[in-house]
Write a structure and sequence with these properties.
Elements (H helix, E strand, L loop, with lengths): L2 H27 L5 H5 L27 E2 L6 E2 L1 H7 L5 E6 L15 E8 L2 E8 L6 E2 L7 H7 L7 E4 L11 H7 L7 E3 H4 L5 E2 L14 E4 H9 L21 E3 L12 E5 L9 E6 L4 E6 L2 E2 L1 E2 L4 E2 L1 E2 L1 E7 L1 E3 L10 E3 L3 E9 L2 E9 L7 E4 L6 E3 L3 E7 L3 E4 L1
Parallel strand pairs: 3-7, 4-26, 7-8, 11-25, 19-26
Antiparallel strand pairs: 1-2, 3-5, 4-5, 6-10, 9-10, 12-13, 12-27, 13-14, 14-15, 14-18, 16-17, 19-22, 20-21, 22-23, 23-24
Length: 395
């Protein structure tokens, strides 16, 4: 073989290795070269009563609702329970930047935690177990305090995110995930999973948005991926996720005659950041609180309906900067272990109380002023985490 042929072969091998490496990097990081290529890779969502274009499993609504969801007390059919008992709680980080709305799948979460991620912009930890949301997103990065809340749902709760805070210091979420032995197991980091479990959809919101607001998945895809890591309702050692889970207590809704005509809840996480102010307006007929964000109805793109909840839990916690050298000192930490002030809202009424959480895996427990444990209405529980000087006006 002459020198020319040898040179051609060597060049070809180098080009192949380089192109393969670039392709892997692009897929694993979730960054795609252009929209045209991406469009052909977006899975076609199923449709049905659960959503206009969100997908999700549809169960027979005519069946008796006798089975209680352990996360929020809602009653579903035995058919639905047989489905949810095959997997474990799924926590997903969904952003709340102005460019991310309307988000997909929020209304199907059993429990939601909302706290500022950085710069006054809140972020959601949505916990799914008893419902299939279909498409969910945009999915964003991990923060340390959300790890503490998802840790309440068993030793290896599924935690879904796109990267995360990783500066050395108290806000280093990615290092903490490794310390908890979650990496490569129950930690569903898009950086290490990629397509087709995750994909970027530049067109879903119908307008041009930055790349960081385009990452999506589905609850079913994430549960199916977890199976490949031997994580169903049981872990690889055969332990059920709920062996140590502490469920809240639940009650039936108050009768119509016991409900007030109206109640309005206004929340300000950070002063002057009006685009992230939240209003919950109570509806007597449905016994639900309807959510407005920045003065307009907050919608779920999967249903085109306004977000609602049966229970609002306002937790006041000490918020501080991590001082970890990150740009503009944006990383935050919350003192979410110990005790603090809480306000619980349901049935159109306000309950003054306190919260208590012992350690990372300890359950966030709620008590009224007399020290009795709170009984929630059967329905979504929405935790609003405010700094000590945050504003909560209830009228």
């Amino acid at each position: 073989m002459d020198k020319r042929k040898i040179t051609i072969i060597i060049v070809a091998v180098i080009v192949y290795i380089f192109s393969t490496g670039v392709s892997y990097a692009l897929f694993s990081s979730g960054v795609m070269p252009n929209k045209t290529t991406l469009k052909s890779q977006i899975p076609t969502p199923t449709t049905g009563p659960n959503g206009i274009n969100g997908g999700g499993l549809v169960f027979d609504e005519s069946l008796p609702k006798t089975e209680t969801c352990p996360l929020n007390g809602v009653k579903y059919s035995k058919q639905q329970k047989q489905w949810w008992e095959k997997h474990r709680p799924l926590g997903i980080m969904i952003e709340n930047h102005e460019e991310a709305k309307p988000q997909s799948g929020l209304s199907f979460a059993d429990v939601v935690y909302e706290a500022v991620a950085e710069g006054g912009i809140t972020r959601f930890l949505t916990v799914f177990y008893c419902q299939d949301a279909g498409q969910i997103g945009p999915v964003r990065s991990a923060r340390t305090y959300f790890l503490d809340w998802i840790s309440e749902y068993g030793d290896y709760p599924l935690y879904t995110h796109v990267g995360g805070a990783n500066s050395d210091g108290p806000a280093d979420a990615l290092s903490q995930i490794t310390d908890y032995n979650w990496t490569g197991y129950n930690d569903l980091n898009q950086f290490s999973i990629g397509f087709p479990t995750f994909w970027r959809d530049y067109d879903r919101l119908g307008r041009t948005v930055a790349t960081e607001h385009t990452m999506y998945s589905t609850t079913n895809k994430l549960w199916e991926f977890a199976k490949t890591r031997d994580l169903t309702n049981k872990d690889k050692k055969g332990n059920s996720w709920d062996e140590k889970f502490v469920s809240y207590s639940f009650q039936e809704d108050k009768s119509m005659s016991e409900r007030p005509a109206a109640q309005n809840v206004h929340l300000e996480f950070w002063e002057k950041y009006k685009q992230y102010f939240v209003d919950w307006n109570y509806d007597k007929a449905s016994n639900l609180y309807k959510r407005n964000n920045a003065g307009v109805p907050h919608l779920d793109k999967n249903t085109n309906k306004q977000l609602t909840t049966k229970n609002i839990v306002i937790l006041f916690m000490q918020e501080s900067n991590a001082n970890d050298g990150y740009e503009n000192n944006l990383h935050l930490v919350y003192k979410n272990k110990g005790t603090g002030k809480a306000i619980i809202l349901m049935n159109g009424k306000e309950i003054q109380g306190k919260w208590k959480k012992e350690g990372r895996t300890g359950r966030t427990l709620l008590y009224d002023a007399s020290g009795s444990a709170i009984k929630f209405n059967r329905g979504t529980i929405w935790f609003e985490i405010l700094p000590i000087d945050g504003v909560a006006t209830i009228s």
